[in-house]
Specification:
- Chain B: One of its GO terms (molecular function) is acetyl-CoA C-myristoyltransferase activity.
- The complex is a heterodimer.
- Chain A is α/β, with parallel strands linked by helices.
- In chain A, the strands form five sheets. In chain A, strands 15-14-13-16-17-18-19-20 form an eight-stranded mixed sheet, with helices on both faces. Chain A has a six-stranded mixed sheet with strand order 1-2-4-7-9-12, sandwiched between helices.
- Chain A starts with about 25 loop residues before the first strand and ends in an 8-residue tail after the last helix.
- By secondary structure, chain B is an alpha+beta fold.
- Chain B is built from 16 helices and twelve strands.
- In chain B, a hairpin with a 3-residue loop joins strand 11 and strand 12 (about 460-470).
- Helices cover about 35% and strands about 15% of the residues of chain B.
- Classes of the chains: A alpha/beta, B alpha+beta.
Chain lengths: ~750, ~475
C-alpha cells in the first residue's frame, strides 16, 4: 500500500453543487420587515438581475423598514458564484466586468437605506459569503452544515465581489489573509468569535414539522426579530470592542506593522507554493491595494486580478480538478442490490485499521480481524486515537467517540463473519497469503458477501483465481494514511459483477472517498504510474543527485512531496517490491535505477520512515530530517555516470514527470482507465501529481503533446524504450486539435 | 454550572404576592364537579391473578428554595424528616415495614445509600434493608415502582418509598489533576517524593469541578434543551409565562385552601418550624415579561420565572398489598395500577417523556384520555409542558416519531395540575415523583374522580407514566 500526504489539500467544497437548479427569487412583504427568500444556490447572471429587481422593489417601498435575506433551500445559503458563468468568458476583460458588476450590486446592499439581515443556514461560501458580509447583520445557525468561507483560492481565483475589500475590515488583516489564502471552511461558532457573524441560532429537533424545516423557520423568526430591532434601534450594529480588539486595531493602524505583515505573508506563500500558484499572490495584492490606497483602488485591483486569474492555466486546472472531484463522488454503477451494513477487515495493520477508522464513524458495523493480539491491540488503538484526536480538536464529543467505537469489534477469529456483507483484506502483499485468507473467508461468509482486496500491485484476477465466486471479488486500493488520503482506487476484473462494483463504490462513498474505477492489471493505474517515476528517481540518485536536491526539484515542479521523501513514506521495501513485480510484468520499460539499490537499503533496515531510516534519518519529534549517510554510501556503490546532455535541473524534472505522464496515457490507451478525468483525479489525489497542472492529462493538454514527445525523444535517444512515447500520446502530438479535456 | 445556579435567582425580579387572584387567561381553573357524575360508569382496573397494590399514605417536607432554611442540613436529614412524618401519620410499627427504597439524583458522597442512613436516623428497625435508586427526575417514581414490583412478586407486603434532593449543598470536587496528585501523595514514601508531588501542583490544579444539570451525552444543559424544545414546537414566551403564572396561582390557591395535606411540619434544628412551601410566588405577566432569557441569549424564551427552581425537599409514601393494609386496619388512599418507563433521543427529545409515556400507559390500562379525571404532570419548564401538550396533540408527531397511528390528545386543562406543580411548588429532583402520586390520590379523593394519571420527564431522555385508581369510599 502506498503512503504519502498532500500538503495542498483540495478538500471538497460545495462551490456550485446545484448549478443546474435555477429557481426564481420570490419575496413577500410583512410591511415592516421583508423576507427575501432565495431558492437559488449559486450566483449567476440571472440571479444577479433578479436580485437587483427585488431589492429595487424593497427599497422603493417606503413601508419597509428592514429586510431579511434567507435561503429556503435546506443546507445551503448561497454556495458561491456559478463556475460556468466564469468559464463561459473568453477574455480577462469579460471576467473583470463580471466582477465589477458583482461589486456594484453588493455595494448597493452595503449602502442599503434599510438594514438587511442575512440569515444563514448551510453553506455560505465564496460569492455567498461576499453577499452576506455586504449585509448589515448576520445570523447563522450552529448546525454542522453551516460553513462560511472563501474557497476561491482553491480554484485559483480570488473573492471577486468585494471580498478582498470587506473581509479585512471585518475580521482584521491576519484573519482575512488566513481565510482567503487557505480557503478553509469556518464553522458558525468560530465565525462568531472572529466577528464574521453577529448572532447564532441553535438547530432545533423535530417539533410539529421535520427538524430541518422548523430550524429554518426559527432562524427566520429570530432574524426578523433582529431586523425589526435594528430598524427601531433596539439592536445596535456596532459592537463594543474588547481591549484586545482595540489593541489589535491600533497595532494594525501602523504602516510599518502592516508592511511587515504583507512581507511575512508573501514570503510564506512563496515558500509554500514555490511560485506555482498565482492566486495567493493576487489576493495579497488586492487586499494591500484596498487597505493602503483606499476603497476604489482596491475594488479595481480586485476586479482586474480576478479577470487575470480566471484566464490562467492554474485556475483551469484547479477548476477541472474540482469538477472531476464532483464526478468521482457519485456512484455511476447504480444502487447495489444489498446495502453493505456490516464490514469485516482482515489485518489490523496501518491500512486495515485506517479503513476501520473511516468506516465506524459512518455507521458501518465493522469487524477488525488480525491473527495476533498485539495486532488488534495496535489497530484498535489507532482507531481510538484517530477519533480521540477529533475530540481534542472539539470536532467530536467524547460521548460521540464512544458511541462510534461501539461499531468496532476487534477479534482473532472468524466469528460473526457469517453476517458480513463485505470483507476487505489488508494482509501482507503475498499472493499465497492472499489466497489462503480468501479461502478461509469464503468458507464462512454468506453468498452475497463481497470480497475486496486492498492490494497496491497484485492483479486482482490472480487473487480471484482462488475464489469460488470471482464475480464477488474486487480490488479496493486505499492510500495511506487512510483517514487523510481522499482517493480510493477500485479495480474490477472481467468477472467482477456490476453489482459488486456498485457495492464497492457505495461503501467507498460512504467512507468519504473520491473514487476512480479502473481495469485490472499489474499496478492498476496509480501504482503503475508511480513505479516508472520512482525507477527514474532511483537512477537520478545513482547519478549523484542527493535526496535533498531531488526533493527540491520535484517540489518545485509542484509535487507536494519530494520524490525521495515519497519513497521513504511509501516504504523502501514496498517500493522494491513494486519495482520488482512490475519490472517482471512490463520488462525493461520499467527499468531505470537499479532495483538492487532499494534491496540493499531494505537489507540494511532502511525501510523508510516507518523504520526510522530510509533516504533520510527520522528522529522522534524532530521536524528536520537529515540525509542518511549510509544510504548515500549505497548510492555511491551503485554510482552511474550522469549524461551531461540530459542532466540539467529541468531535464531531471521532465525525466521524472514524462515517464509518469506517458504511463498514465498508456493506461488510457489500454483501457485500464475509463477516461482522462479519473486519470487526473487519481494522479492528483492518490499520488500528489501537481494540482496546479491539474493531472497528467490536463498537463498534456496545456503543455502540448508535441512538445512533450519532443522532450521524451531526447531522453529516448540515451535511455531507450523507457522514454518511448505511447501511441495515444503520439496521436495527440500529431494532431494538436486532439485534447483529453474539452 | 452557572446556568444551574441561575434558577435560584428567580426570586429577585419576580414580584411579590399581590397578584394572587389573577389566574392565567386561557388556562384558568374551573370547578370540577362534572367528574363526580362520571365515576359510576367506570369499572375498576383490578385484574384476576394480579395483586392489588395500594398507596396507604404519602407525605413530604415543605419544598424550600435551596439556600434557605434547610441550608445547613444534610440530604439524609430531609429524608429522615419525611420518614418520621410518615411514621407519625400512619402510626405504623417501626418493624412492620419490609423494605425501604429512596430515590435521589445528586448524591452526597458520605451518604451514598441515603435510604439506609435516613431509615436508621428516623428510628426504623435496623433489620429493615434499604437501598437507593437514581433515575434523574423520576428517581422516586422508580423507588415506588420498585416497591410495587417487590410486593407484586410476593417478596414484601409493606414497603416505604421516597425521594430526597438537597441542592443547598452539592459535592464540588477538586480537579481531576489535583485528585490524582493527592492520591499519589498518599502513596508517596519519601519526603522527596512528597515534595516533588507538591511542587507539581499548578494553579490550574486548584480550579474546582462543579456538578452541572447537563446531559453527559450531549453536554447540553437542561434549560438550553428546554428552550430548543419550546422553539421546535413553536411555544411562545407568552404561552410559557402564562403557564408559569397559572401554576403559581393554582399552587397559592391550593396552599391557602389547605389542600396540600401531604406537607408535614418540620422543626429544623436551630431554626423555626417550617410548615409550608416557600417557592410559590404568583407574579404578573408584565413582571415576568421583564426577565431576560436564562439559557439561550438573546432570543431564547426560557427564563428563571418559567422554569422550576433549585429546591430542597424530601417525600415518602407507604405502599402495601391491599390485603395487608386492610388487615392492619388502614384505609388506603388509592390503587397503584399500570406504569411504564420510556426513553428517547436525549438531545432533541430530552423532555418529551410524558408524550411517549401517556399513550403507552393508557393502552396498557385499557383507558383513553377521556377516562382520566386527574392529571398530574411534572412541570420541569413551562416550555417543556407546552411542548408536550403540542406533541400529544399532533398526529404527525405520533406517526413520525412514535410509530403510532394517531395522536393521544391533550389533557383538558380543567383537570391538569390543579394544585400547582413543580414550577411553583418546587422540584427537588429525587422527591417529586412521590409528590405527584400522592397529589393524584388526594385530588381523586377531593374531586371524586376515579382515574388519575402521573407523567414525568427526566434527564437522559427518559420518562415515566402511571395510572392511579381511586380507592372506593
Amino acid at each position: 500500500s502506498l503512503s504519502l500526504s498532500l500538503s495542498l489539500s483540495l478538500s471538497l467544497f460545495f462551490y456550485s453543487a446545484y448549478m443546474s437548479e435555477r429557481e426564481r427569487l420570490y419575496c413577500f412583504c410583512v410591511c415592516v420587515c421583508v423576507c427575501v427568500c432565495v431558492q437559488v444556490n449559486t450566483l449567476s447572471v440571472q440571479m444577479q438581475a433578479e436580485l437587483t429587481e427585488v431589492m429595487g422593489e424593497v427599497w422603493s417601498n417606503g413601508a419597509v423598514k428592514s429586510a431579511v435575506f434567507i435561503s429556503t433551500k435546506p443546507g445551503c445559503f448561497i454556495a458561491g458564484a456559478d463556475i460556468n458563468m466564469i468559464q463561459a468568458c473568453k477574455s480577462s476583460e469579460e471576467v473583470t466586468s463580471l466582477s465589477r458588476e458583482g461589486q456594484k450590486m453588493f455595494e448597493k446592499i452595503e449602502k442599503s437605506p434599510i438594514p438587511i439581515v442575512a440569515a444563514i443556514n448551510g453553506s455560505c461560501l465564496g460569492g455567498g459569503l461576499e453577499f452576506a458580509i455586504a449585509c448589515q447583520y448576520r445570523v447563522a445557525t450552529k448546525s454542522r452544515k453551516t460553513i462560511l468561507g472563501t474557497p476561491e483560492v482553491m480554484l485559483g481565483l480570488l473573492p471577486g465581489a468585494g471580498g478582498t475589500q470587506r473581509l479585512p475590515k471585518m475580521v482584521g488583516l491576519p484573519g482575512a489573509f488566513d481565510m482567503m489564502l487557505t480557503g478553509r471552511n469556518i464553522r458558525a461558532d468560530k465565525a462568531k468569535k472572529m466577528g464574521l457573524v453577529h448572532q447564532l441560532v441553535d438547530p432545533l429537533g423535530p417539533g410539529l414539522k421535520p427538524a430541518e424545516e422548523r430550524t429554518i423557520e426559527y432562524l427566520e423568526e429570530v432574524a426578523v426579530g433582529v431586523a425589526k430591532g435594528i430598524a427601531n434601534k433596539k439592536v445596535s450594529l456596532t459592537k463594543e470592542k474588547g481591549f484586545m480588539q482595540k489593541l489589535q486595531d491600533t497595532v494594525m493602524g501602523l504602516g510599518p506593522v502592516r508592511k511587515q505583515i504583507y512581507k511575512t505573508v508573501s514570503d510564506k506563500v512563496q515558500k509554500q507554493t514555490k511560485g506555482l500558484y498565482p492566486a495567493p499572490v493576487k489576493i495579497i495584492e488586492s487586499i494591500q491595494a484596498g487597505v493602503e490606497q483606499g476603497g476604489e483602488a482596491g475594488y479595481v485591483a480586485e476586479a482586474t486580478n480576478f479577470g487575470k486569474l480566471a484566464m490562467t492555466s492554474e485556475s483551469r486546472a484547479l477548476i477541472g480538478l474540482y469538477q472531476g472531484q464532483v464526478i468521482c463522488k457519485k456512484n455511476h454503477y447504480g444502487t447495489p442490490e444489498k446495502e453493505v451494513k456490516k464490514l469485516a477487515i482482515l489485518g489490523a495493520g496501518l491500512m486495515g485499521a485506517g479503513i476501520a477508522q473511516v468506516s465506524v464513524d459512518k455507521g458501518l458495523t465493522t469487524i477488525l480481524k488480525d491473527t495476533a493480539v498485539d495486532g488488534i491491540s495496535r489497530g484498535e488503538q489507532q482507531v481510538y486515537k484517530g477519533l480521540n484526536d477529533k475530540v481534542k480538536k472539539k470536532a467530536l464529543t467524547s460521548f460521540a467517540r464512544d458511541t462510534i467505537l461501539s461499531n468496532l469489534s476487534a477479534q482473532l477469529d472468524y466469528s460473526s463473519f457469517k453476517s458480513a456483507d463485505m470483507v476487505i483484506e489488508a494482509v501482507f502483499e503475498d499472493i499465497n497469503i492472499k489466497h489462503k485468507v480468501l479461502k478461509e473467508v469464503e468458507a464462512v461468509i454468506p453468498p452475497h458477501c463481497i470480497f475486496a482486496s486492498n492490494t497496491s500491485a497484485l492483479p486482482i484476477k490472480d487473487i480471484a483465481a482462488a475464489s469460488k465466486r470471482p464475480e464477488k471479488v474486487i480490488g479496493m486500493h486505499y492510500f495511506s494514511p487512510v483517514d487523510k488520503m481522499q482517493l480510493l482506487e477500485i479495480i474490477t476484473t472481467d468477472k467482477t459483477s456490476k453489482d459488486t462494483t456498485a457495492s464497492a463504490v457505495s461503501v467507498g462513498l460512504k467512507q468519504g472517498k473520491i473514487i476512480i474505477v479502473v481495469g485490472d492489471g499489474p499496478g492498476f493505474y496509480t501504482t503503475r504510474c508511480l513505479a516508472p517515476m520512482l525507477a527514474e528517481a532511483v537512477r537520478v540518485l545513482q547519478e549523484g543527485v542527493g535526496p535533498k536536491r531531488l526533493d527540491a526539484l520535484t517540489t518545485s515542479f509542484g509535487f507536494p512531496v519530494g520524490a525521495a521523501t515519497l519513497a521513504d513514506e511509501v516504504g523502501i521495501d514496498v517500493a522494491a517490491h513494486v519495482a520488482e513485480d512490475l519490472g517482471k510484468a512490463f520488462g525493461s520499460r520499467f527499468g531505470g535505477g537499479n532495483v538492487d539499490v532499494l534491496k540493499t537499503m531494505v537489507e540494511k533496515g532502511f525501510k523508510g520512515r516507518k523504520s526510522g531510516k530510509g533516504c533520510y534519518i527520522y528522529g522522534k519529534g524532530k521536524k528536520d530530517k537529515s540525509v542518511n549517510p549510509d544510504a548515500e554510501e549505497i548510492l555511491k556503490k551503485y554510482k552511474l555516470a550522469a549524461h551531461p546532455a540530459i542532466s540539467t535541473d529541468s531535464d531531471i524534472q521532465y525525466r521524472l514527470v514524462s515517464r509518469f505522464v506517458n504511463e498514465a496515457v498508456l493506461c488510457l490507451q489500454e483501457n485500464i482507465l475509463r477516461n482522462p478525468v479519473e486519470g487526473d483525479i487519481g494522479a492528483v489525489f492518490g499520488l500528489g501529481f501537481p494540482p496546479c497542472l491539474g493531472g497528467p492529462f490536463r498537463f498534456v493538454d496545456s503543455f502540448g503533446a508535441e512538445r512533450l514527445v519532443g522532450i521524451m525523444k531526447r531522453f529516448e535517444d540515451i535511455y531507450g524504450n523507457q522514454f518511448t512515447p505511447c501511441q495515444l500520446l503520439l496521436d495527440h502530438a500529431k494532431n494538436p486539435s486532439k485534447k483529453f479535456h474539452k | 454550572m452557572a446556568s444551574m445556579l441561575l434558577n435560584s435567582l428567580r426570586n429577585c425580579p419576580v414580584c411579590p404576592a399581590w397578584a394572587v387572584q389573577s389566574a392565567a387567561r386561557s388556562l384558568s381553573t374551573t370547578v370540577q364537579l362534572q367528574a363526580q357524575v362520571q365515576t359510576k360508569s367506570k369499572k375498576t382496573l383490578a385484574r384476576p391473578n394480579v395483586k392489588n397494590i395500594v398507596l396507604v399514605e404519602g407525605v413530604r417536607t415543605p419544598f424550600l428554595l435551596s439556600g434557605t432554611t434547610y441550608s445547613d442540613l444534610m440530604p439524609h436529614d430531609l429524608a429522615r424528616a419525611a420518614l418520621q412524618g410518615l411514621l407519625h401519620r400512619t402510626a405504623i410499627p417501626k418493624d412492620v415495614v419490609d423494605y425501604i427504597i429512596y430515590g435521589t439524583v445528586i448524591q452526597e458522597v458520605k451518604t451514598s445509600n441515603v435510604a439506609r442512613e435516613a431509615a436508621l436516623g428516623a428510628g426504623f428497625s435496623d433489620k429493615i434493608p434499604s437501598h437507593t435508586v437514581t433515575m434523574a427526575c423520576i428517581s422516586s417514581n422508580q423507588a415506588m415502582t420498585s416497591a410495587v414490583g417487590l410486593i407484586a412478586a410476593g417478596q414484601c407486603d409493606a414497603v416505604v418509598a421516597g425521594g430526597v434532593e438537597f441542592m443547598s449543598d452539592v459535592p464540588i470536587r477538586h480537579s481531576r489533576k489535583m485528585r490524582k496528585t493527592m492520591l499519589s501523595l498518599n502513596k508517596a514514601k519519601t519526603l522527596g517524593q512528597r515534595l516533588s508531588l507538591l511542587g507539581s501542583i499548578r494553579l490550574a490544579h486548584l480550579s474546582p469541578e462543579l456538578p452541572a444539570v447537563a446531559e453527559f451525552s450531549t453536554s447540553e444543559t437542561m434549560g438550553h434543551s428546554a428552550d430548543r424544545l419550546a422553539a421546535a414546537f413553536g411555544v411562545s414566551r407568552v404561552e410559557q409565562d402564562e403557564f408559569a403564572l397559572r401554576s403559581h396561582s393554582l399552587a397559592k390557591k391550593a396552599q391557602d385552601a389547605g389542600l396540600l395535606q401531604d406537607v408535614i411540619s418540620f422543626k429544623v434544628p436551630g431554626r423555626d418550624i417550617v410548615s409550608q412551601d416557600n417557592g410559590i410566588r404568583p407574579s404578573s405577566m408584565e413582571q415576568m415579561a421583564k426577565l431576560k432569557p436564562a439559557f439561550i441569549k438573546p432570543h431564547g424564551t426560557v427564563t428563571a420565572a418559567n422554569s422550576s427552581f433549585l429546591t430542597d425537599g424530601a417525600s415518602a409514601v407507604l405502599i402495601m398489598s391491599e390485603e395487608k393494609a386492610l388487615a392492619m386496619g388502614y384505609k388506603p388512599k388509592a390503587y397503584l395500577r399500570d406504569f411504564v418507563y420510556v426513553s428517547q433521543d436525549p438531545k432533541d427529545q430530552l423532555l418529551l417523556g410524558p408524550t411517549y409515556g401517556t399513550p403507552k400507559v393508557l393502552e396498557r390500562a385499557g383507558l383513553t384520555m377521556s377516562d382520566i379525571d386527574v392529571f398530574e404532570f411534572h412541570e420541569a419548564f413551562a416550555g417543556q409542558i407546552m411542548a408536550n401538550l403540542k406533541a400529544m396533540d399532533s398526529d404527525w408527531f405520533a406517526q413520525t416519531y412514535m410509530g403510532r397511528k394517531s395522536k393521544v390528545g391533550t389533557p383538558p386543562m380543567d383537570k391538569f395540575n390543579l394544585w400547582g406543580g413543580s414550577l411553583s411548588l418546587g422540584h427537588p429532583f429525587g422527591a417529586t415523583g412521590c409528590r405527584l402520586v400522592t397529589t393524584v390520590a388526594h385530588r381523586l379523593q377531593k374531586e371524586g374522580g376515579q382515574y388519575g394519571l402521573v407523567a414525568a420527564c427526566a434527564a437522559g431522555g427518559q420518562g415515566h407514566a402511571m395510572v392511579i385508581e381511586a380507592y372506593p369510599k
